[in-house]
Amino acid sequence: ENYLSANPHFVKSALAQYTQWDFIALVEKHGIAYHEKGLGELFCDESSKQILQMLVDECEACGVLIRTDAQTERVKHTNRGFQVSTSLGVISAQSLVIATGGLSIPTLGSSGFGYALAEQFGLSVLPRAPGLVPFTFTDQLKAVCERLSGTSVEVVISALGQSFRGHVLFTHRGLSGPAALQISSYWQPGGVIMLDLGPEVDFQALLLADKQAHPKAVLRTRLAQYLPKSLVAELEMMLWPAEADRPIAEIPDVRIAQLSQTLHQWALKPAGTEGYRTAEVTLRGISTAHFSSKTMACESIPGLYCIGEVLDVTGHLGGYNFQWAWSSGYVAGSHV
Description:
By secondary structure, this protein is of the alpha+beta class. 32% of the residues lie in helices and 22% in strands. It has eleven helices and 18 strands. The chain has helices at residues 11-17, 20-29, 49-61, 113-120, 139-147, 178-184, 203-213, 219-223, 229-239, 253-264, 320-335; strands at residues 3-4, 34-38, 41-44, 72-78, 81-86, 89-93, 96-98, 129-131, 135-136, 152-159, 162-170, 174-176, 193-196, 266-268, 272-273, 281-283, 304-306, 314-315. The chain has a seven-stranded antiparallel beta sheet with strand order 14-13-10-11-12-9-15. Strands 4-5-6 form a three-stranded antiparallel beta sheet, with no helix packed on it. β4 and β5 form a beta hairpin. α1 (11-17) packs across α11 and α7 packs antiparallel against α10 (253-264).
């Protein structure tokens, strides 16, 4: 349930063959200290570079040859396997594993090479889009986000029937933070995202009670107990300027009900996202219909395997994409 794919069942076999506990055992084997930050979210005590070094050490222990600064120029499928022409020469092998990742964060070296290779072999590639990516806004909302830049608030954020609870962060360009990144994988361009600014607060009940207990108070004073003052000030200008300085006792109950509903269902229409430049993952990719979920082997081309993000498998925020990389890689490695 934490993965997006045209075939949501595809991930099950690999994740069962190499679980998160298997990876944690590998981390512990290498003596890397870690801690739990959120529920089930594990971080290195020192540096994530330790994980990279762990993987390099594992490769060296198995005699793996890693060639860097080698440009792949051409890949050819022959009766005896594959020929990969590179800037360092031609490599021949019986098996070829496409593990090129997606299009996200091109400054780290990502490209569409894996997708082009799949199409060369006649495999279908589903339309791609940035995932786990911040939203951008234009016009009035962009100005609001700029003024609120750095402000974080816990919300329930929704789009297309999917909801996530967590923090959103206002930025100079728009909206980021864990909850915003999560919902971005479901949002469609031109669509609306809905924010519940009080997941555990009944604004209507509280404000109606305030009419009795604090009749001379204004809305901003009462709401600032539950939301950042800067956010309340912006909401006041946008949503209830006429009531800004009115004592709460003078605001009709029906108007309080309307304002409360807006606070629980604040509809925002993003202009777009920041795109692949900052997206943590690439949605969709090479269709899983061509591959065995048990081995990651291509069913039409013997010796060809695909693993990780290049496939049409996208995980939620929180380590799911790493785990898919480990699990699919382990499965392919066991059958190459």
